[in-house]
Design goal:
The complex is a heterodimer. Chain A is mostly helical. Chain A is built from ten helices and two strands. Chain A has a two-stranded antiparallel ribbon with strand order 1-2. The longest helix of chain B has 28 residues. Classes of the chains: A mainly alpha, B mainly alpha. At the A-B interface, helix 2 and helix 6 of A face helix 2 and helix 5 of B.
Chain lengths: 239, 153
């Protein structure tokens, strides 16, 4: 006997799909380069906003969005690997993947803020470090991308594995927010499946996310002006 | 007699240096050339893309001409055999495969040369939107060569 429950809240699903689209767009714009590298930078800032939002949502979002709900503790992991884990949100192995992806993406965005392409693009925080440091962080930005790609491939392979081997469709719930679960399981979490999609938490999370993005673009430059030489160079130096 | 030999040796040495130069010298000159180009690329980026309100037609045209001059200066002469290893202003990042991919490299380098010369032409018109478009193409041509010939950081 199965019942349909609301498992992923709308902000979480929007986060997921916008992140997927943004990462793909960031990859394409970086590969093509030229004028699109500026878009790569803007998309990176958008991803920064998404990540900040997700971290906040991990504390104030609905039940299955909360980190504490699905944190992959060792007992949970062992139980899952022995086939004894019962739950309806992220399973402990999936939870590890969530945290790994978030950490790798955070490192990717963090290094990107200081990066340069040795052509005509610098990240918004480039002026706060030496060029040599920026070069090293750019190198890390390249390396971390490979790691990110590996995690994305693992993520997709896992989804295919669940679909064909474990007969569980993970994609549809991420689109609709609804999932069919055994009635006994649903009962154990009844009443708190979609708790906490509070307007206050949502608005505060959005405001903080936007503020962080503004902070690294305009805010820091405003509080701590680090104008580039190019901006202060005289238009007519005389010779 | 000894002085003559010394003079001949000195002349030969300096002529050789002027034609090919030791490896470090080639690396240093090409790093300088690209740094100079980067200064001018930065000016155009700032005045055309990031802060168009500061657009100065003459300054941008001068910058575009400088980039084209670097492109037209025969940079290929600074990529002699063995220059994939060595320190100019800093360690070179030229890929060792560079020397096996001469045909591809020539195409990529000429793409940059053509894009840079076109940018100089467009910059002379003072049409900021057209400059912006062509500037993007120059950026792509830079990347084309970097991806092909430079070891990633």
């Amino acid at each position: 006997m199965k019942v349909t429950i609301h498992i992923w809240d709308l902000p979480l699903r929007l986060f997921h799909w916008l992140l997927a689209i943004a990462v793909a767009a960031a990859y394409i714009t970086a590969k093509i380069g030229g004028a699109l590298i500026d878009w790569h930078g803007r998309i990176g800032l958008f991803i920064l906003g998404l990540l900040v939002f997700r971290i906040l949502w991990g504390f104030v979002g609905s039940t299955h969005a909360r980190f504490l709900t699905f944190f992959p503790t060792l007992p949970r992991l062992i139980a899952y690997l022995k086939g004894r884990w019962q739950g309806i949100g992220h399973n402990p192995l999936g939870a590890l993947s969530v945290f790994a992806l978030l950490a790798v993406l955070a490192a990717q965005v963090g290094t990107g803020l200081f990066a340069n392409d040795d052509i005509a693009f610098v990240g918004p925080l480039f002026n706060f470090v030496d060029k040599s440091v920026s070069d090293r962080l750019t190198g890390l930005h390249n390396t971390i991308f490979d790691l990110l790609l590996a995690f994305i491939v693992l993520h997709i392979v896992a989804i295919i594995f669940y679909r064909w081997v474990k007969k569980t469709n993970l994609v549809v719930p991420m689109l609709t927010g609804k999932k069919q679960v055994p009635k006994t399981l649903a009962a154990s979490v009844a009443g708190r499946t979609v708790s906490g999609v509070g307007a206050v938490g949502l608005i505060l999370s959005l405001i903080i996310s936007c503020t962080v993005v503004w902070g690294v673009t305009g805010g820091i430059a405003y509080l701590h002006p680090a104008e580039t030489y190019q901006q202060t160079a005289q238009a007519d130096p005389g010779f | 007699m000894n002085r003559k030999i010394a003079l001949t040796l000195l002349l030969t040495a300096s002529t050789t240096a002027a034609i090919a130069g030791p490896i470090e010298e080639q690396i240093r000159f090409r790093q300088s050339a690209y740094s100079f180009a980067a200064w001018n690329v930065g000016k155009i980026k700032s005045q055309v893309v990031d802060h168009p309100e500061t657009f100065n037609k003459d300054a941008v045209a001068a910058a575009a001409n400088a980039i084209a001059a670097v492109a037209n200066s025969g940079l290929g002469a600074l990529y002699g055999e063995g220059t994939d290893k060595g320190v100019g202003w800093k360690q070179t990042r030229l890929k060792p495969e560079f020397f096996q991919k001469k045909a591809e490299v020539t195409v990529a380098a000429n793409t940059f040369n053509e894009a840079a010369n076109e940018l100089a032409k467009v910059a002379a018109t003072g049409d900021i939107n057209a400059i912006k478009v062509q500037f993007g193409k120059v950026g792509e041509s830079c990347k084309g060569c970097h991806d092909l010939t430079r070891i990633k950081e």
